[in-house]
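Side project, low priority. Logging it here so it doesn't get lost.
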Amino acid sequence: MDLLKSIPKVDKFIKHKTFESCSSKLITKVAKEEITKLREDILNKKIDSFCQEELINKTLKAYNQIIKPSLQKVINATGIIVHTNLGRSLISKKSFEKAKEIASSYNNLEYNLEEGKRGERYSHIVKTLQSLTGCEDAIVVNNNASAVFLVLNTFAKNKQAVVSRGELVEIGGSFRVPEVMTQSGAILKEIGTTNKTHKKDYENAINENTSILMKVHKSNYSIEGFTSEVDLKDIIEVAQKNNVIDYFDMGSGHMIDLPFGLDEKEPSILKYMQYNPSLLSFSGDKLLGSVQAGIIIGKKELIEKIKKNQLLRMLRVDKLTLCLLEEHLNLYLKNELDEIPTLKMLHTSIKTLEERALKVKESLDKVCTCEVLQSSTLIGGGTTPNKKIPTIALSLKYKDFKPNKIEKLLRQRNIISRIENEKVLLDFRSIQEEEIQELINILTEVFK
């Protein structure tokens, strides 16, 4: 009972100088919880003593855990540039600085400055996309999954949408094309086989209720061997002859030619636009290297119909997304591609990566065992499935620690590495140049 009597009262406890800078409301709540736990531990005879200093420290720790931001910066040393779990593409700092001023001020999001009346939020992005791609019109929603749903709901509700069996994909988060089509109200018409689809399959599937011939990017797998698929150019030709819409869900679209021969399987948006498609949609935060968004480009009459769909209001993007996307696309227009982190990382030479790895190795040689290795990595984000690109990695060994233990030590300091062939690797393909010294400092502390 004496121990129970020594438990401090909440109102007096929270007045301790340690809590001076804390929110009064939150520290009161946390202190009540900690004191309640203490009382229960005493009654259940789990403890037979305590000191106030320990209670203060526990309370402050619990308080700090609540107010600590859950979303934190990490160093991506996995080698995967478009890492879905780590936020996909990095926002250009140049674009972010410009967007900051717009986002923190009133702006003309839906106001026409020339006419002095209400305007349209999508107009801010249309001119840029027209200049870049040659499209007639464009619209932006919150991600490409929304874009797919909106296109199908607008044009294929209670109508037939024709898709190859080999393209009925499931991507991350159990996003399945067949289920999305069902939810949108479209009637799925599967054609071809898993490994082979021909132009005649599209032609034979068309009937009076057919609305769309849809092509879907195989974002996370590839079919090798005895296979064939129909090029978008041929699908467009069939669609035009039969007066139906052709639509390509590109998944990850890109504006420029990719290195390492990746364009053989992943032609750019600009190359597809040469075929004059009805509609294309693609992500903003994958190979485009910008903010999360679903971008739909194509024929003006079709985009106008999409704008009239009542679902658009639920899927629309805000001022910050539009501003970041516009600024980012302007980097393409101005040919300032080095300002786009995704492209910069993708095009960094092996020689440069090796130089960075050697710099880190030289700084760590006295505290752990390092080895610079040639390796390969995926781009990530559902882009160029199963196609690896060359990279340079640094393997780390420390005392007799197993790889999992080293990986955890790094992760606790917000360095995300990968384990390959029983080795912990730091892959320099995804480590930013400006992060090198920070990386060295953290690793030196971890392995001291």
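Brief comment: The chain has a mean pLDDT of 91.
Revisit when time allows.
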